[in-house]
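Kindly review these tokens for lecture notes.

. . .
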Amino acid sequence: MSESGVEETKRSLERVVDIAQQVGRFDENLMFRGVDALSLREEFKAHFRNVSRIMDCIECEQCRLWGKVQTAGIATALKILFEWDESRFSFAEDSSVDGIIQRSELAAMFNTLNRFSESLRAATRFRETHRKRKNSSRKNFRRIFRLSSVLSPSLIP
């Protein structure tokens, strides 16, 4: 990757982190607590790996590919969430994510983030369209009702 590409990626990642800090923070420590915390965490990982193996059964290659990319993206996010040692990484010049997260994992995570964002945007558009149609239907019903009340009952079939 070129020097300008690296800088652009860092700026984009910093924007994502800023947005995440504005919306709030997920406390992963609340997820796996108690006596069985370690075994629960390992069981969670095993079930997640099984999802990836199930993806192999999908016949459509494009669906299988996107399913695997999104599964890898979620897995990377969980890896960061549960296994990240913040003292090992910073945006300093001498810092590196080598050995912590692979480039393909980051690409999968950002692809998945993009897919989730697109899905949320589509859900918002669908909700807005539904609201407009619902309001339009109510207005049409009111017009028909007013028209029918103006007409004499003998003209209404």
Notes: The chain has a mean pLDDT of 77. Residues 103-150 form the longest helix (48 residues). DSSP finds four helices and no strands in the chain.
